[in-house]
Amino acid sequence: MLTQNLGYPRIGSQRQLKKACEQYWAGRISLSDLNQAARLIKDENWQAQLEAGIDLIPCNDFSFYDQVLDMSLLLGVIPQRYAPVLSEVKTNKEIDLYFAMARGYQKDGLDIIAMEMTKWLDTNYHYIVPEFTARQEFHIFYENIFAEHHSAKRLLGNKAKPVLLGPVSYLLLGKEKEAGFERVDLIRKLVPVYVEVINRLRQQGAEWIQLDEPCLALDLSKKEKEAFEFAYRSIANRVSGINIILATYFDALLDNTSLAVNLPVRALHIDLVRAPAQLDEVLAEIPDHLQLSLGVVDGRNVWKNDYEKSLALINKAVGKLGTGRIIIAPSCSLLHSPIDLDLENNLDPEIKSWMAFAKQKLNEVNELRQIAEGNTSLLSANKEAIKSRRSSAQVHQQAVKDRIAAITETDATRRSAFPVRQQLQHERFNFPLFPTTTIGSFPQTDDIRQLRSKLKKGELTAAEYDRKIEEAITDAIRWQEETGLDVLVHGEFERNDMVEYFGEQLQGFLFTKNGWVQSYGSRCVKPPVIYGDVSRPENMTVRWSQFAASKTQKPMKGMLTGPVTILQWSFVRDDQPREVTTNQIALAIRDEVTALEQAGIGIIQIDEPAIREGLPLRKAKHAYYLDWAVRAFRISASSVQDSTQIHTHMCYSEFNDIIGSIAAMDADVITIETSRSQMELLHAFSNFEYPNEIGPGVYDIHSPRVPGTGEMVSLLIKAAELLPVRNLWVNPDCGLKTRKWPETKAALENMVAAAKLARQQI
Ligand code: GLN
Ligand code: ZN
Question: Which residues are annotated as active site (predicted)?
């Protein structure tokens, strides 16, 4: 029985990669310094995997920015607009081209925009989307991969296994940049380059290679399935002497099972954490020659593996295939898990004993192999940990479970239908047409951030910190009043992050010191860990909202993060369904909503920017997910009087396929991002005849550019052509925390002026 790993975190246990890249971008270190930093990380990673006893250790899973961008460079898929970078840059051409594609290039009189970035399947990792043209050619351009395999081989010998994104997924995860062709048709031109790459790796001594084809776990068209057939048959015909592992993950193969097991490769990897039931389906169809890699250790969460559960799967596969055809592995690349639990010296020891990060997960893979081969003495410690978690009073709160069991449809429904509520709210607030507001946060200046770090270090007392926050809120309110906004916000100055802020105050959450995972490029996030039943010991935001409300006669909007977003941006429990955890969070938010209302806050916004990204990969599962996600939002929002106005916010606007669910959330007002599409994206709402109120963002907050009043007026007029005017609000696309004050003030002054002009023109 072999063991393998599919990929290891590359940011370094101290986020060295982030620091090195950012210094290189700032021109403070040289390319050789950058390469040296990378070498140290790679060596540390390979060493850790060797020590964990892994047989097939990934190389080329390292990346300075993103593994999909690495593929584009390897294959010469370089959009035309970057040609000047190559001709202008004199040294470090390739790496500077690479970073230009990732981040844009503003230098030497050039101003070239970056490539688009999007979420890697259903993870929070973002990749750089390949851009294809009708006449796209492929050739080996960036030779880095060969050097990396070479150095991996020096340390790992035959264990070094290069990892590439497979040809079909590489095409499918990209985009056509012009009309008149389908990117999947490029497979015929692409495969010969893959053949060349694989043959060169084989000549360098690679015995195994891993081709990732996550798209095999998605809904595929007939043509896409044919592309898989074509690609892997061609590769098999023209490559020999190297074992190809085809890696799938994040969902089951389902209707792609026959296709996948019959592709001419040495081994198939399947994700048995996300989709344990697919083992039976795969075993039923697997041909005699194929080896099976069992992804039994969760690569996307922080919990210790339940060995007994994994062994049941392993034993079933061994029973059918014998040990010689089995490989034990994590479910997917460990890119998505934090690196080393040993570095956490501040966790509750009991909870820590239930956890495993990347390094520990590899150890689990190795132990599972040993147990499967008969060394059952390794089972007992694991059993203890699993048992302690299952029954721990830190996890299980009967009162929370009872409340979940008692939720009724009434709890998830506002007292009256929207038209009744709208009438009452209009009477109560008496807003003009096109009421103006913002999405919640105001600039998180260095001064504000420093307050928090001083408080942490003890350089500021809690009382001093609170006074400073009060000052910031008071200033922001005075300024909003002067500017003439209709619904004010307190500015979220007291919040480090919209999820962390709530997690820190809720029971059932913990925070690690070093549990970083890569989000994109040098950006890392440290998601909270939800380990137990969630409850809310005390009010979380009332103090600040109430203070803010006391400083003005205008309505003050309370500001909360919604249950689905809190779930989606955390590591979650794997011992109960996601929807149960979400409902627990929903009840906590509901109580906060109630408390805000009782404190006199008449408008409450519950942000749900992550609802869409929680969509399952397979269409057949969308309805079920949307159902519980919408219900959780409604549970959080429905305790209030009809005259209390509930807002929600989502900072994206691809709503076409989920508009019914958005409407079912039944928020009185939704604010969304639309400005960059010139209100085009509002069509989803108008075609659906979306009944409730809506604030389509009138300006893009992602850059410091100050929008003119005229352009915002014309966007408002456009919006008024698509939706009833009485339902329209005026606001920016998203919160303003990443902006500076001067542009924020200028933009909002123009926005208020635009609303006034639009009122006259309508
Ligand atoms: N209220 C949050 C803010 O203004 C919303 C952020 C978000 O949508 N991501 O920052
Ligand atoms: Zn937003």
Answer: 702 (proton donor)
Q: Which domain does 239 fall in, by range?
A: 2-11+52-79+115-337+349-390
Verify whether ligand 1 is closer than 6 Å to residue 489 (CB atom): no
Q: Choose the weakest-confidence range: 114-118, 486-490, 533-537, 634-638.
A: 114-118
CB 153 within 8 A of CB 205: yes
The answer to whether residue 196 scores a pLDDT higher than 90 is yes
Over its C-alpha atoms, the chain yields an Rg (Å, rounded) of 27
**Separation between Cα atoms, residue 607 and residue 734, nearest integer Å:** 10
Q: Kindly state if the Cβ of 441 falls inside 6 Å of ligand 1.
A: yes
Q: Please list, in sequence order, all residues whose beta carbon lies within 8 angstroms of the beta carbon of residue 417, skipping any fewer than 6 positions away.
A: none
Residue 185 within a domain? yes
Atom number of ligand 1 nearest to Cα 441? 4
d(CA 739, CA 492): 13
Is residue 607 part of an annotated ligand binding site?
A: yes
Q: How far is the CA of 458 from the centre of ligand 2 (A)?
A: 32
CA 527 – CA 511 distance, rounded (Å): 8
Cα 444 to middle of ligand 1, angstroms:
12
Of 89-103, 410-424, 606-620, the poorest mean pLDDT is in 89-103
639 CA to centre of own chain: 30
Instruction: Give me the residue label for tokens 């109630």.
Output: 594
Please indicate, yes or no, if residue 369 is contained in any of the structural domains: yes
CA distance 18 to 14: 9
Gap between the Cα atoms of 145 and 160, Å rounded: 12
CB 321 within 8 A of CB 375: no
- The ligand placed nearest to the CA atom of residue 440 is 1
Q: Is the dihedral of CA 92, 95, 101, 103 positive or negative?
A: negative
Question: For residue 628, what pLDDT is reported?
Answer: 98
Nearest-atom number in ligand 1 for the CA of 650 is: 8
The answer to the question of whether 651 is labelled as a binding residue is yes
Q: Is 188 annotated as a binding residue?
A: no
Out of 649, 651, 670, mutate this one to test ligand 1's pocket (max ligand atoms within 8 Å of CB): namely 649
> Cβ(439) to ligand 1 under 6 A?
yes
Instruction: Check: CB of residue 313 under 8 Å from CB of residue 42.
Output: no
Task: Name which of 215, 164, 205, 144 is nearest 58 in CA terms.
Answer: 164
Q: Judge whether 441 is annotated as a binding position.
A: yes
Lowest mean pLDDT of 4-13, 100-109, 329-338, name the range: 100-109
Whether 649 is in the pocket of ligand 1, judged by its Cβ within 6 Å, is yes
Q: What was the pLDDT predicted at 109?
A: 87
Q: What average pLDDT does the chain have? A: 97
Whether 65 is covered by a domain: the verdict is yes
pLDDT one-digit tens code per residue, 640-654: 999 999 999 998 778
Question: Hey, which of 496, 605, 607 would you mutate to test ligand 1's pocket, going by the most ligand atoms within 8 Å of its Cβ?
Answer: 607
Nearest ligand by distance to the CA of 673: 2
CB count within 10 Å of CB 446 equals 8
Count how many domains the chain has.
1
- % of residues, the chain, pLDDT over 70: 100
499 Cβ closer than 6 Å to some ligand 1 atom: no
Residues with a known catalytic role: 702
> pLDDT digits over 387-443, tens only?
999 999 999 999 999 999 999 999 999 999 999 999 999 999 999 999 999 999 999
* Whether residue 609 has its Cβ less than 6 Å from ligand 1: yes
Residues whose CB falls within 8 Å of the CB of residue 526, separated by 6 or more in sequence, listed in order: 338, 511, 512, 514, 515, 516, 517
Residue 289 is encoded by which pair of tokens? 């020659």
**Is the ipTM here above 0.95?**
yes
Dig out the tokens for 598 from the structure.
Answer: 């009782």
Q: How far is residue 601's CA from residue 589's CA, in Å, rounded to a whole number?
A: 15
CATH number of the structural domain spanning residue 382: 3.20.20.210
Task: Tell whether 195 is covered by a domain.
Answer: yes
Distance of alpha carbon 745 from alpha carbon 476, whole angstroms: 10
Question: Relative to the CA of 438, which ligand 1 atom is closest?
Answer: 4
pLDDT at position 462 is: 97
